[in-house]
Hints:
The chain contains six helices and seven strands, in the order H-E-E-H-E-E-H-H-E-H-E-E-H. The protein is α/β, with parallel strands linked by helices. It has a single domain (about 10-145), classed as Roll (CBS-domain), CATH 3.10.580. The strands form two sheets. A four-stranded mixed beta sheet has the order 1-7-6-5. Strand 6 and strand 7 form a beta hairpin. Bound molecules: adenosine monophosphate. Adenosine monophosphate binds near residues 45, 46, 48, 115 and 128. It comes from Planococcus shenhongbingii.
Amino acid sequence: MISLPSRDFLDTPIEEYIISSEKVAHVQVNNSAEHALLVLTKTGYAAIPVLDSKYHFCGLINAQRITDAILGLEHIEYERLPEIRVEDIMQTDFPLIHISERFQRALDLLIDQNFLCVIDDEGMFMGILTRRVILKQLKKQIYQLKK
Ligand code: AMP
């Protein structure tokens, strides 16, 4: 019979697993959709955080939202990209996780999200927590159970 990972493991602070903000590609609220598309394309990431000038977390932007914003009736209106601001098309309805949360909370949220943005009490962006990192930790725990 397989026993579940110990409670201690599920109680680990997420802080240990986050990719810190300095290493996370992001755009700013007042950047153009053109700039955001460039960053998304160059980095190859599916979605990236949107921050204000003081590093507060504001939302997420992805290529689908940008394309959707320039969809005309007959064709995609690429010429409009420079005039659209990221703030006007970013996604804001998704769960965030606080830096003081534990592994179990992250695990629950990462069932439905590929990654989570991590914030502190003031809403400052601290980094991201990816499903990949959490799955790697789970795998480590499960393999240790076999020994
Ligand atoms: P991964 O687990 O590395 O495949 O990352 C999953 C998603 O998390 C990516 O598609 C991005 O949306 C986001 N992500 C991961 N690492 C970064 C990073 N360094 N900067 C910005 N976004 C990232």
